[in-house]
Design goal:
Blueprint: E1 4-5, H1 9-18, E2 22-23, H2 25-34, H3 40-52, H4 59-68
Parallel strand pairs: 1-2
Helix pairs in contact: 2-3, 2-4
């Protein structure tokens, strides 16, 4: 089974219509923690690296993402 990762609302809406499982950045990172592929610390590091590389994330969204990751 595949999983589409996207923070774009239009992409997620089309994925839902097509029956494709889709999750946001926070969902994907949290799922990787649950599956044991990443530790919480690694997930936070990846999130911070995304932001450092130019991915836009406002303060409220960042706080919500950290909560999703268990911080």
């Amino acid at each position: 089974h595949g999983l589409l990762g996207s923070d774009d609302a239009k992409v997620r809406r089309v994925a839902k219509l097509e029956g494709v499982l889709c999750g946001s950045t926070g969902y994907l990172l949290a799922r990787l923690i649950i599956e044991g592929a990443l530790t919480r610390e690694q997930a936070r590091s990846r999130l911070d690296a995304l932001i450092s590389s130019g991915w836009y994330c406002d303060v409220d969204t960042y706080a919500r993402l950290l909560r999703q990751l268990g911080w």
